[in-house]
Here is the input.
Amino acid sequence: MSQRAERLQEEEKRDLLDPLMAEGWSVMDTRDAIHKKFKFKDFKKAFKFMQGVAVHADRLDHHPEWTNVYNKVDITLTTHDCDGLSKRDIELARHIEEEAKNVSQQ
Ligand SMILES: C[C@H](O)[C@H](O)[C@H]1CNC2=NC(N)=NC(=O)C2=N1
Here is the structure.
């Protein structure tokens, strides 16, 4: 992605975040960032999920802050380039939701 990311304005942010909040994402108190904890059946599934997300992150040139412990993956999304949430975070979060559903159904 070549264009510089722009920080979302409050109104736009609410509209774009609503569906993600319904999926369990939350806005952090301390940062302009969103966060969600994922839990899978085992490490194999968690890692498969991470591999799927990594493909999207690479393609979008937009990367999650994440940690993995066994079957859990904690993800924080924010845009370092604009020091806050941008449309790139929303797009990545949508792909993350798809990956989580695919892996859980397998
Ligand atoms: C040079 C490269 O495009 C930038 O550093 C990208 C890479 N991945 C990124 N990921 C995230 N989360 N925020 C960024 O601002 C960002 N910038």
In short: The domain at 28-105 is CATH 3.30.1360.20 (Gyrase A; domain 2). Helices lie at 10-22, 43-60, 87-105. The radius of gyration is 13 Å. The chain has one domain: 28-105.
